[in-house]
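batch job 7 of whatever, protein = DUF3103 family protein
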Amino acid sequence: MKKMTLALLMITVPLASIISPFSFAEPVDKIELSTQQASQYSVSVSSAKREIALELSRQYARLLPTLQSNINQYNLAMDANLAFKSSGSDTKKLRQSELAIREAKGLYTHTKSKINTDLKGSMEPNLVQFRLADASMLSDWQQGESPLFAFEPDGDDKLWANIEAYDVEGNIHLLDVYQLPQRPVIVIGLDKQQAMREGLAVMRDTFALSTDSANLSKRSISQARPQISSFTTADQPISTTVIKQISVQDDEEPWVSGKAEIYGIVTGVNPSRDEPALDIIEMPYLDYSGTEYYPNQIVIHWERYRWAAADLVLMEHDDGTNYKDLATALVSIAERVLQQYPDPEVQGYAIIATITNEILNALPDAWFTNDDDFVDVYYTLQEGETYTNHHGAGGNARAFFAPLVIQPR
């Protein structure tokens, strides 16, 4: 498996002076969330998965028929809760561990999104999965070879000494971080796509509620929602930018981590007020490095951004991030940057790169260990422009951006 991360130092200092030469803003201090606190989130998720691994080792004989009937060459993973329920096993410890994971990641413990209607009115989906580490292990496992039960350690994967795993007797085995084991391994992990989808919903809610709170004294709640220009009326076209093609470079990732899940953060300034505009873009197709993807995905709605310019930061989901705190941090940093400019129009779109750089520079280092990893950044994407074979500032991503005007019906 390949990892799509990059050293943060490649962009935070040199590109700040190149991209934003007119900036006079003072650097934003580290946000209040400490490195120790951010690390504790990762430890909590790892500890919860360790408990599930031990429980799976204890109940493996009962779960085996269910696991083997659901894990096959077409699907190497299954829902952990379904595995326990289908075998008649006790799910209490699993549910307790999943609740701890949700709390550590800042996800809703019940799906009660205040803004996103797609998550309203139901209990939260299950996050924990049992995944066979590699398809090459399937035959030996189906023929009766006893597996190990592994999970991602906490902290920076570059510093992992080994992968901890348990056998059916509860004995500990220490596995190589990068060498795929010869023995079958069932990984206790998260449904990354579901976790990221829920996490991004939390971030969108936080962005929207922050905007509402800042403007309640000036307008009603309905007016305080992100302002939509006349471009969105029924008789006006909508100006957007789409990703026609994208890929990222290779960089080795531990086998226990599985495929990547990438998302984007679009940064800019609100067209009607001196406030940051932050949008989250799901990119569920971008799973593997060294692969070309052709999503034709809209990533920027230009009525959301002043100066017809915005930046795009690409991030990779990992298990340790608390999305509520991350969203709050992003809003706080962006607002503090803008407050340092008495007249944003003087600086113009150079401000956008300053916001982006300070977001990347001010977050505690622990966000960029085995929490959500920085992939690359695109500075100053402009409305109406085509960017062919366009590399990110760090050289890790390469994309083809094109304008798309959606005509009214």
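notes: Residues 1-42, 111-123, 216-232, 366-371 have pLDDT under 50 and may be disordered.
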